[in-house]
Amino acid sequence: MIKILDGKIIAQQIKAKIKSQVITITNRKPKLAVIIIGEDLASQMYVRTKIKACQECGIDGQVFSLTTTVTQKEIINKIEQLNSDNNIDGILVQLPLPKHLDTLAIINSITINKDVDGLTNINAGKLLQGDKKAMLPCTVKGILKLLNHYQIPISKQNITIINDSNIVGKPLALSLTNMGATVSIVHKLTKDLTIYTKEADIICSATGVYNIINSSQVKRDVVIIDVAINYQGKEKKVVGDINFEIMKNTASAITPVPGGVGPMTIAMLLENLMICYQLNNKYN
Ligand code: GUN
């Protein structure tokens, strides 16, 4: 029987723990600043979910909504202002950004102790070097927590990641490599996806393409981590990259969509914020 890797329950436990920690803070509560640029509906929905999760745990969340016409300089000025604001512990710039903006320059202007997303070049560099103090991107940390919770081994495993982004694929590959896995990243230019999926003990998929792989492309008892959120059909049913019905007789475990990696990402954002809070309070 396929095992369902329930991220919702674990995320609830983590959030309850954070809430109980925040309650004990008698002075300034932790605070997250979220910058969102433009009108993208999915991004707006993600930001609402993040702020709601903060509020549930007693954490302050403030959203700075900027219009698509905002300039690079204005955004960086805003980030610099938040960098030096002692009431702000973490700064998150919701991605993707409108095309005219330089995403890397914007992300890298976040000061390291407020890099709650772990996306700055400094944290990415630390991860590359295997520095355990690197702030990990929330989705990556969430996947690792989920695998650890269900005692799914990583060391010596063949892991294929279908995503090469700076947010998921690359930091996930580095984290898993640091833990002793043999990792393949596949992407749009990969000639034959099946070569890599067929040998994988674990497959992590974040493509935005429903049905990206079927059961003939994986080996028996594979563990599937479905990172995507797609909307299927007229009813816009929430699905991932993987068709559960197709995989249920082949895979040994799978994360559901919704209720798998998504809630873990949010819980890890709160966990990272608490780390930032401690870092910032040390220097205040
Ligand atoms: N857009 C989609 N996922 C994320 C995330 O984890 N962090 C940020 N900043 N933007 C995102």
Automatic annotation (TrEMBL):
The Tetrahydrofolate dehydrogenase/cyclohydrolase NAD(P)-binding domain extends over 137-278
Positions annotated to bind NADP(+) = N163, D164, S165, I229
Tell me if Plastid is a UniProt keyword of this record.
no
Stated EC number for the protein is: 1.5.1.5, 3.5.4.9
Q: Can you tell which superkingdom this protein's organism belongs to? A: Bacteria
Which keywords describe this protein according to UniProt?
A: Amino-acid biosynthesis, Histidine biosynthesis, Hydrolase, Methionine biosynthesis, Multifunctional enzyme, NADP, One-carbon metabolism, Oxidoreductase, Purine biosynthesis
Please write the reaction equations for the catalytic activity of this protein: (6R)-5,10-methylene-5,6,7,8-tetrahydrofolate + NADP(+) = (6R)-5,10-methenyltetrahydrofolate + NADPH; (6R)-5,10-methenyltetrahydrofolate + H2O = (6R)-10-formyltetrahydrofolate + H(+)
All copies of domain Tetrahydrofolate dehydrogenase/cyclohydrolase catalytic, residue ranges: 5-117
Q: Does the keyword section mention DNA damage?
A: no
Pathway per the UniProt entry: One-carbon metabolism; tetrahydrofolate interconversion
Assembly, per entry: Homodimer.
Q: Which family does it belong to?
A: Belongs to the tetrahydrofolate dehydrogenase/cyclohydrolase family.
Functional description taken from the UniProt entry: Catalyzes the oxidation of 5,10-methylenetetrahydrofolate to 5,10-methenyltetrahydrofolate and then the hydrolysis of 5,10-methenyltetrahydrofolate to 10-formyltetrahydrofolate.
Put simply, this protein is called: Bifunctional protein FolD
Name of the coding gene: folD
